[in-house]
Amino acid sequence: MKTLGILGGMSPESTVSYYLNINRAINSALGSNASAKLLMSSVNFADIVECQKSNNWQKAGEILAHEAKLLESIGAEGILIGTNTMHKVADAVQNAVSIPLLHILDVVAERIKAQGLHKVALLGTHYTMADNFYVDGLRERGIEPIVPDDEAKLEIHRIIFDELCTGKILPESKDFYLKTIENLTALGAEGVILGCTEIGLLINQSDSTLPFFDTATLHSEMAVDFILEK
């Protein structure tokens, strides 16, 4: 079993889901009292949010790269960034270490193509929906994302940071997300990427007839395969 280093705390709510999903899957695979060999650096999310708001992605990359190097130095054999948005600095993290980075877009694109889909709705933070790093990353992997209009982007982003990241689950916010999915379906979406690791706290597959691709769940499954050396 390999040791995985997790860059977490962005937000704590999603980091909890990673930890539980990975350990439950390892226990299911190995039985008895087996659990994953994990090392974690849980950063101060406020520092990362400040970097995002000030568009200081270089500093954000330096923070995560520093933590990744620490994890490698104490035995991590791979690194996972437990958030979609901060994959914007994935190259800075990977360049700082000699161990592999488990990139979230690799597993998301793989699972979408496995279902024979090409065009999918993308929900996430404003950075994820509007910045090229995620949209272009999907296109490079053969997936065409459809994003909401500017007004909807802002509200989706607000709900993530003001509510989901602090553990608030509100029915009116769920309704807004589902209405947005309806609008994107009308534009040709064949599935939905839950492109923020907190969104799965608000909506799930039972809420829609379109296939959902919960990035936190898929990334956790990728982590399990790495730990079990599959």
TrEMBL record:
<dbReference type="InterPro" id="IPR001920">
    <property type="entry name" value="Asp/Glu_race"/>
</dbReference>
<comment type="similarity">
    <text>Belongs to the aspartate/glutamate racemases family.</text>
</comment>
<dbReference type="InterPro" id="IPR004380">
    <property type="entry name" value="Asp_race"/>
</dbReference>
<dbReference type="InterPro" id="IPR033134">
    <property type="entry name" value="Asp/Glu_racemase_AS_2"/>
</dbReference>
<dbReference type="Pfam" id="PF01177">
    <property type="entry name" value="Asp_Glu_race"/>
</dbReference>
<dbReference type="GO" id="GO:0047661">
    <property type="term" value="F:amino-acid racemase activity"/>
</dbReference>
<dbReference type="InterPro" id="IPR015942">
    <property type="entry name" value="Asp/Glu/hydantoin_racemase"/>
</dbReference>
<protein>
    <submittedName>
        <fullName>Aspartate/glutamate racemase</fullName>
    </submittedName>
</protein>
<keyword id="KW-0413">Isomerase</keyword>
